[in-house]
Amino acid sequence: MITTITLNVSVDKAYHINETVESGKVIRVATCNMTAGGKGLNVSRVIKMCGEDVLATGFVGGHTGALVEDLLQKDEIKSKFVHTKGETRNCINILDQDNVSTEFLEPGAPVSEEEKNLFIKEFDEILDKTNVVTISGSSPQGLDKDIYRVLIDMVKKKGKKVILDTSGELLKEGIKACPTMIKPNSEEMESLLGVGINNREEIINSAIKLHKSGIEIVVVSLGGEGALLVSEDGIYQGKPPKIEAVNTVGCGDSMVAAFAVGFERGYSPVESLKYAVSVSAANALTSSTGSFIKEDAYKIFEDIKIIKI
Ligand SMILES: Nc1ncnc2c1ncn2[C@@H]1O[C@H](COP(=O)(O)OP(=O)(O)OP(=O)(O)O)[C@@H](O)[C@H]1O
Ligand SMILES: [Mg+2]
User: Fold this and answer.
1) Between the N and C ends of the chain, which has fewer C-beta atoms within 10 Å?
2) Can you tell me the distance from the alpha carbon of 116 to that of 120, in angstroms, rounded to the nearest whole number?
3) How many other CB atoms sit within 10 Å of the CB of residue 185?
4) Residue 225 beta carbon below 6 angstroms from any ligand 1 atom
């Protein structure tokens, strides 16, 4: 089984409007879509669509938290969240007539020490039934910046695999525990290493540096150019064919999901790369976030170029 960790869950509402956003105006919403949000929940949906068993974990609270659990259940995704006193947040994305997006992200309720300790206790038990763990996104107020380091240490002590996909301080602290894999994009890697990255050679050198620091698999995602992988098997780029992207939000999450599936199935790093590029590129072909059509992924898979560097 694959376990996903989403500490900062939300209910994501997409408001489609037939005008532009202006302050002081009453705006009627034409259509509204609601999804269980937070990057780790996108990862959970894609793992499920790939056909693997997944358990979503993290914190939820109040009525909004119950709605998240309901939405996951509708997608037949198992979950085991710690229930917090604070209410789960809403995140609103307004998409206007020209598809320009305006986002309102609530800060989210803080997690207490007691709630954190309960999560750690339950996670320790879940680990016994899990082969692969994914950790995605931001953390709520109330948790220390080393929370991912603590969780990665727990996973590694039990000899399981863990993928970390986050940014800023959480990533800096998290890599101290040497997760099995990280998947920064180039901006995240620039901020992690405190250097400017301007070309392919600099991307490769930065990824090698992180691999040498003890991270088994370093994958740098490059949007439409695919992804670069550094592991003990060598350095490879997986390049998708040119596609007409509709919505690239959640492509990174889809890539993390597919790598977790690859680990679960015992694929080699390069096999996982090819699979993950096809699933993440297929996600760009659908308007919904954290979703793909299997036939799209199959077609893309046939046309992916794996380049040994
Ligand atoms: N326009 C595109 N065409 C084909 N594949 C794409 C495109 N955009 C993204 N992908 C696929 O998705 C993967 C991840 O995308 P990207 O590098 O944008 O991740 P990201 O910045 O972490 O995204 P996010 O965090 O918003 O989910 C890429 O490595 C690639 O395989
Ligand atoms: Mg990302």
Assistant:
1) C
2) 6
3) 18
4) no
Q: Is the pLDDT of residue 266 over 90?
A: yes
Those residues with Cβ within 8 angstroms of residue 302's Cβ, 6 or more apart along the chain or in another chain: none
Query: Which tokens sit at 203?
Result: 């991307």
Residue whose CA lies nearest to ligand 1 atom number 7? 224
**What contacts 24+ positions apart, CB below 8 Å, involve 183-190?**
183/219, 183/220, 183/221, 183/227, 183/252, 183/255, 183/256, 183/259, 184/220, 184/221, 185/220, 185/221, 185/222, 185/223, 185/252, 186/220, 186/222, 189/220
Q: Which tokens hold the place of 11? A: 């209910």
What is the residue-wise DSSP string for 118-169? Answer: HHHHHHHHHHTT-SEEEEES---TTS-TTHHHHHHHHHHHTT-EEEEE--HH
User: Helix, strand, or coil here: 32?
Assistant: strand
Evaluate whether the domain defined by 2-308 bears CATH number 3.40.1190.20.
yes
Judge whether 39 and 6 are in contact, CB under 8 Å: yes
User: Ion ligand 2 — residues with CB under 5 Å?
Assistant: 252
Which of the ligands is closest to the CA of residue 254? 1
What's the token pair of residue 213?
A: 């620091």
Task: List, for residues 191-206, the tens digit of each pLDDT value.
Answer: 999 999 999 999 999 9
